[in-house]
Amino acid sequence: MAATGSAVRVRLAPSPTGTLHIGTARTAVFNWLFARRHGGQFLLRIEDTDKERSKPEYTANILEGLAWLGLHWDGEPVIQSERIAAHRAAIQQLLDAGRAYRCYASEAELTEMRERQATENRAPRYDNRHRDLSPEQEQAYIAEGREATVRFRIDDDATITWSDLVRGEMRWAGSDLGGDMVIARRAPADQIGDPLYNLVVVVDDAAMAISHVIRGEDHIANTAKQLLLYEALGATAPVFAHTPLILNQEGKKLSKRDGVTSVSDFQRMGYTAEALANYMTLLGWSPPEGMGERFTLAEAASVFDFERVNRAGARFDWDKLNWLNSQVLHGRSPAELRDALMPLWQAEGWSADPAWQEQLAELLGPSLVLLADGVEQARPFFERPELNDAAVQQLASDGARPALQALLERLPVGALSSEQAQALLGEAVAAAGVKKGVLMKSLRAALLGSLQGPDLLSTWLLLQPSGEAAARIQHSL
What we know:
- This protein has helices spanning 22-37, 56-69, 84-96, 107-119, 135-143, 197-207, 220-233, 263-269, 273-282, 297-301, 318-330, 334-347, 354-364, 373-376, 379-382, 389-395, 400-410, 418-432, 436-448, 456-463, 468-476; strands spanning 9-12, 41-46, 78-79, 100-103, 148-152, 159-164, 168-173, 181-187, 212-216, 239-243, 246-247, 314-315.
- The protein is mainly alpha-helical.
- The strands form five sheets. The protein has a three-stranded parallel sheet. A three-stranded antiparallel sheet has the order 4-5-8.
- Strand 2 (41-46), helix 2 and strand 3 (78-79) form a beta-alpha-beta unit.
- The radius of gyration is 32 Å and the shape is elongated.
- The termini are far apart.
């Protein structure tokens, strides 16, 4: 469908029964991109009708995660639990029109029905046993004190079709939807119990004038049921787009068993919002030729369409996410990197002059993949390191001690320029009668406690002003 102008109104409808999941966040990305591409609105609805599991801290986590990713929504979030009167009114409308009815089947009776179906190798479905109760039969159940659910009538011979923006023409048979659908939980016969998901979503999407529903392919069966509800309530159905699921490396749906699935977990690990949003866009969408795989949300929004959304599941690729994150970090200025790393350094109890911290950030920047890498890589600059085995072996090698002693004797107090440091190295090498490589490896071992690390000269110049360079050389001797 061609979408134009303000007619486009999409929504994200997370349930605050857990933290913001990567799958929900990817759905948010696709909704946001589509809305921004067409000058429409990206709305937010908090589906908190699961009273036992919904928690305010999860709502806060979802809102914070979306804002951190740069997925800003339009208007105030709609709180679903505040709309229960409208949901019950819609159920009453369906009851009055004969499109829904009260079902008095007990849980024990339904369990027995399902067990019998399983024994006979039949798919589980409600057998519509209370669809056509006479008034006398209904009164008899009420006299027994039975409570009732409300069920929506689904005709087995119905055919449900829609044109999906990702999957093309879709067709479902009413007989495949499991019998008449419960739309309100069990309650006394003169009341309507808690409204259930499929009914509530339809009522709320209609009230919010949602033009396009963009969600995961695991909702396809729900879409068939919801289209029947739109028709029964006399509401205009939105256009649907069912996006591919995010899969793990084994090709199964990404779940908590795969470890990190929450956006806040990615944030804690040191991934940037830019890289994560960029990567989620690539989970199921292919950028146009020539665009490349690294882009901003705004750049993606300028070209986003569903013709380039894949039908197949999208496998989560840690290597690609890490590459994108490293590219974002490598593109930041030293001051930006310092500002991002300072909270992590402060959490370790480390503090220093901001200008010095900026120099350290500049030194570490090219080797960072995650922001969290900037903690361990910075540790030797804030805390005197222990010597590892390779460093001990180097310091015991021929010429190491004389070379370091010669350098230490020539070290001035205070800062050095790069040119001064190079001259001191030359003098120390000549005085000790060793090759320059011996001094360089020994100096690295003395300063960093390891033969691995960032540029040696820059490391020395950072440690020199405070006297730490001399102290570490002296300690190694």
